[in-house]
Amino acid sequence: MKATNYSKGSSPRCWKNGKRIKSTNPLRLYGSVRFLSYILIRLLLILTVLLFLYLLIFSKLFSSVFHKRYNKQNEFAINFKNAYIPYVVDLPDNLNPACPASTKLLILIMTRRDSFSNRDGIRKTWLKDAVPGTVTKFIIADSPSKIEITDNKDAAQKMEELKKEKQLLKVEQMQNKDFIFLHGIEDNYANLHFKWLAALQWQQAFCPQTKWIMKTDDDTIVHLPRLNNWIDKKFTREIEKNKAMYFGWIISGYVSENVYKGNSYPPYMQGASYVASSQAITATMPHINKVIGFNMDDVLFTGILADLANVTRADHKEMFRVGNGLNKEEKCEDGIPYVTALYGAGNLEGFQNIYTKLKDVKCP
């Protein structure tokens, strides 16, 4: 048997039939695998970055398109010291943006769900004389979550009435596009301060460019050309001293110590109609969570919160009246009557009569 010679450093596995065969160097194999792994990792990182950029750009585009076309809801929260209530605002289909850039006066009208005749009366009388730059919105909250059965009406009948009311509101909104729907806040007297805070949150979010905000109720009659005159000639000059101001009829009254602990009750604006500079609302909002909320919204916002926010009140009771009566001789300036807002209408005929009376005021 022929002996096989092995050279130094060789291995029997490197020889076959007396011939040396080429072997695979483990170090070289490891290096090749490592190099391939490095390449694959780099490619994976590059693909990850590209995918991230693609998703980032696409998600922004998709989000923008989705929001513009489909997402009509915006989430907010009532945030008084004693109440935190999340709610959702529905934006009307045709409002994008909600207010034009040229908006000068935003009128926010507090209204009940069933006040169909009042809203009809407002639209057919004084809103027809709105000056350019005016935007008007009706604030409407949810129907009650609990059904109160009265006048021998059973629950089924009441549910049918609420269903019909909801459908009528839907039709009214389709025709007029002037509602701000609040979902999560019930429409009742106890929640007036919730509704008004929600209205102001809507203004801050969707109509911050407006210079003036007017608060009215749905039984109020306003002479808008006259109001525009006083805004230009009086209110604009008055805010040169203090940008944050309320304008209306200043009154005072009693409120329970359960809702206000001050030594004296602050004066406030008569709530049927008053005007605020946009700075007054902006100054007020950071203080909402510092106060106990209660349903006298005029007292709460134009009294207590106004004091906390250093908002000035200007008394113009000759313009913003309590009731719908007129003096035998009304005061005027430059041939324009001071009287600008009355309230007390309950149907179309009432709005027509009171608005005609308001327009027909003559200067002595």
Automatic annotation (TrEMBL):
Topology in membrane: Single-pass type II membrane protein
Localization of this protein: Golgi apparatus membrane
Enzyme Commission no: 2.4.1.-
Species name: Meloidogyne enterolobii (Root-knot nematode worm)
Lineage top rank: taxon: Eukaryota
Segments crossing the lipid bilayer: 35-58
Alphabetized Pfam families for the sequence: Galactosyl_T
InterPro entries according to UniProt: Glyco_trans_31 (IPR002659)
UniProt similarity note: Belongs to the glycosyltransferase 31 family.
Record-level GO BP terms: protein O-linked glycosylation
Keyword tags: Glycosyltransferase, Golgi apparatus, Membrane, Signal-anchor, Transferase, Transmembrane, Transmembrane helix
GO CC annotations on file: Golgi membrane
Protein name: Hexosyltransferase
Gene Ontology molecular function terms on file: hexosyltransferase activity
Primary residence: Golgi
